[in-house]
């Protein structure tokens, strides 16, 4: 992590905090059953993500068991936990893929996530990166980003549509950010695993999400790629809110080393087992027993 990137992250956080946070639509009723305009989440009085007492059962087995969790706007929150702790199920609830049996889930103070379908959650400003990269292998890096910029416009139309200067600049800025500026004409299928992961993150960034959910983003990456990914995430912190689920403790270390007080959440058996700085949770006896000490 270079001092420049750390400074960039700090600046981005300041800019984000200075951004007007109140929904243009305004009011709780504004989001119920309506399409939500991206970038209008209301965090004036609270967190950007609020999960309260969420329970998800599969044939009587509680994958999430009264899970409560909040994430503040601009945070980079790491979520760790052993296999089966409920991390993926939690992301499925946030993105509308799984409906809980009980509990509440809010994006800002007004957007009730449990009333939105998956595509509406994405439109509201929540982007999700699954573990495996799913880029369009036959297309170039640039074309992949171009498609992502188009959102849900039809693919062919998106690729024949002339880009505006501002759109080109946006793609260019993302290319620099994801370290693929030199590879823009390369077919995505020819990229390394790590580069494909960055491209997919770049595709999410084209939609300018407020909240990014990242499921094991460095699985299968080389040490160098992992380090670059940590730098990328730290540069996004503040401007975006990031929730990173990860098993790789060296990556968690890299994500928290600029600020040792940064919160890490440990999930176990569908609830929060511990939360606090990495050092605090690593020293927690319950955590050592169920996870770190295994
Ligand atoms: N559709 C399903 N049907 C039945 N059980 C499920 C289903 N989805 C998840 N589970 C169970 O719920 C528990 C939590 O799963 P989940 O995938 O959320 O955990 P995780 O923390 O993401 O694990 P990992 O680190 O292995 O990805 C597991 O015991 C899993 O087997």
TrEMBL record:
Family matches, as Pfam families: ABC_tran, BCA_ABC_TP_C
The keyword ATP-binding appears for this protein: yes
One term of GO molecular function: ATP hydrolysis activity
Keyword ATP-binding part of the UniProt annotation: yes
Keyword terms, alphabetized: ATP-binding, Nucleotide-binding, Transport
Cross-referenced InterPro entries: ABC_AA/LPS_Transport, ABC_transporter-like_ATP-bd, ABC_transptr_urea_ATP-bd_UrtD, BCA_ABC_TP_C, P-loop_NTPase
Source taxon at top rank: Bacteria
Stretches assigned to the ABC transporter domain: 49-294
GO cellular component: plasma membrane
NCBIfam families named among the record's database cross-references: urea_trans_UrtD
Name of the protein in question: Urea transport system ATP-binding protein
